[in-house]
Design goal:
The protein is of the alpha/beta class and about 240 residues long. The chain has 6 helices and 12 strands.
């Protein structure tokens, strides 16, 4: 049986009592059929993974007692994902895979052709938490609220380079040879791509690096996964 893992935003140390909210207590007792005395794994995004004993879990909440540390804290590389939200299920998919693949921060952006004018930031953050719980990670990326791409770029720190997955460059896939590790962001456009005025702005920024993701034009959710994998293999923590 797969280990049960919970993200709990609370300090953790051996012998520490940790509260469960109503949703977490219901998940353990009502969904997973756990009972007092059973062990689960917990993490808070800062202190690694720990074993914990269930003391109580009811409709209104519960508590755990922290045992031994089972894994050290593993933080992702300094990679952000900027993407234009698309249909609900595909936006959820992008956030989940970004968390699994090792993004440190997720920033939904509104472009000229973005389909969504608003997002549920709290729901997307919950998807990031669930992805970290499922994949064995000890870090949960923060999901920002939706903001205009133009505003974000106007205040951008040029020390953080941007890898732009430019659908207009569909052709032979490119490696990232010559680019240096460090603070990076990946930019994925909406369905239909960026407008011509946005493309002019992006191509004029010295910290933006357009790149092809291969000979086929990818859906936005597929492009996000492909670009993160490409960056991780060349510049991130997938390198041998």
């Amino acid at each position: 049986m797969a280990r049960i893992r919970l993200f709990i935003d609370h300090p953790m140390a051996q012998g520490q009592a940790v509260p469960l909210d109503a949703a977490q207590a219901h998940y353990l007792s009502g969904v997973m059929r756990q009972k007092p005395g059973d062990d689960v794994m917990v993490f808070n995004g800062r202190d690694g993974e720990w074993s914990a004993r269930i003391d109580q879990a009811g409709k209104r909440g519960g508590s755990l007692t922290i045992g031994q540390q089972t894994a050290p804290q593993r933080d992702p590389p300094d990679l952000w994902l900027l993407f234009a939200p698309i249909k609900k299920a595909r936006t959820d998919f992008i956030v989940e895979k970004a968390a699994e693949l090792g993004c440190a921060r997720i920033l939904p952006v509104q472009s000229d052709f973005t389909n969504s004018e608003r997002i549920r930031q709290d729901r997307l953050q919950a998807h990031a938490v669930e992805a970290a719980e499922q994949c064995g990670g000890t870090f949960v990326p923060a999901v920002a609220d939706l903001q205009p791409l133009s505003r974000l770029l106007a205040g951008w720190d040029p020390a953080r380079q941007i890898l732009w997955a430019d659908e207009a460059m569909a052709g032979p896939a490119q490696t990232l040879a010559g680019l240096l590790p460090g603070a990076w962001a990946i930019l994925i456009g909406p369905e239909g791509g960026f407008s011509e005025s946005e493309r002019v702005i992006l191509r004029g920024l010295p910290f933006v690096h357009p790149v092809s993701l291969g000979p086929r034009i990818l859906r936005a959710d597929t492009a996000a996964v492909a670009a993160i994998a490409l960056w991780q293999a060349a510049l991130g923590d997938w390198r041998g």
